[in-house]
Predict the structure of Fe2OG dioxygenase domain-containing protein.
Amino acid sequence: MSRGAGKENKPQENTPRRVTREKATHKIRSHKFQSVTPGTQPKHHKLWTSFVVVIAVVVAMYFLKPEKTVNLALHNEVVPFRFYKRHCSQQLLKEMHDYPNCIPKQCGRFVSDSLVSSEEVDILLKTAKSAIGLAGSSGGASIVDLHSGALSHKDKFINAYSILEFRKLLTKEFLGAYKAIMSKLKESIAKNFLIDESVLHLTRPTFFSKISNITAKTVHDEYWHSHVDKEQYESFHYTSLVYLNTYKKDFEGGRFIFIDGMEGNETKFSVEPKAGRVNAFTSGHENVHHIERVVHGTRYALTVSFTCNSTLAVDTNFATRYND
Ligand SMILES: *[C@@H]1O[C@H](CO)[C@@H](O)[C@H](O)[C@H]1NC(C)=O
Ligand SMILES: *[C@@H]1O[C@H](CO)[C@@H](O)[C@H](O)[C@H]1NC(C)=O
Ligand SMILES: *[C@@H]1O[C@H](CO)[C@@H](O)[C@H](O)[C@H]1NC(C)=O
């Protein structure tokens, strides 16, 4: 797995301040380093040499530090819109060769707190809790996918549409909110990755997830491994997440972490979930990520995926399809 692709980040204007500060620190340190010209002050040569060594060690320690974490979005801030640009990975570009109009003009990730309203989040959260509450995994991670009907039940999945109580949850109000969010996500992804909305299609899996600190029982409960969405799900080209509750308030752990750079020299970018926050990104190797283990409380989110392959498109007319 190559994490090297796209390591030359190009933060844009609205990249978080800490990125800029790191750069500034780097500049200041480089400047000090360069201003020391051995030989110009023969008397203090040894002193200067030690000084240079000390500075070099400090700089090396700083940059060789195995992990740097940058906060892309904190739970207690409002992020109207924030984009972080990445070079598209070669794998993604190669894979998308068949869909020229769907190739992002820029890859990366964005966070926005202004796409989904608090009323919409309330409706989604209420339904997700009730739906998963009808069954649920015996491990720490449960899902329900309205498109396929997959619902976690103990150590496997059952068809949620076979449960009358589940079908009753799909009220007009819920379906209205769900469809509205799907179309806002699609529009926003098209706009920010600079493609035409008509080439994007909602696809599977698109699901609600519930994560708690219960010990994992099957591989489906192990959400914390770092991965690339495109490798896990062939159909994915663009991934989006809508958080339904809030880090620190409703649960501890469970931050979403992007991992950039080579192994041993990684920069982590955390997105702290917050009710209504959208986190969207291109699904290739430019966005290796994982979710931190939830250590306390329960985390709810909605994963919405989009594909460029129209044969993999799904629609949102669940009620007409299943309630016969
Ligand atoms: C670590 O990664 C940064 C960019 O993220 C790069 O500038 C730096 O040269 C790398 N250091 C090493 C030792 O590879
Ligand atoms: C799991 O979370 C619950 C609260 O949600 C807490 O009471 C419990 O101590 C946690 N268990 C572990 C092992 O951290
Ligand atoms: C689109 O998906 C279908 C169904 O999985 C597959 O047969 C087809 O090869 C895909 N198209 C491309 C261009 O990959």
Notes: Helices lie at 17-35, 45-64, 90-95, 118-133, 164-169, 172-192, 229-232, 318-322.
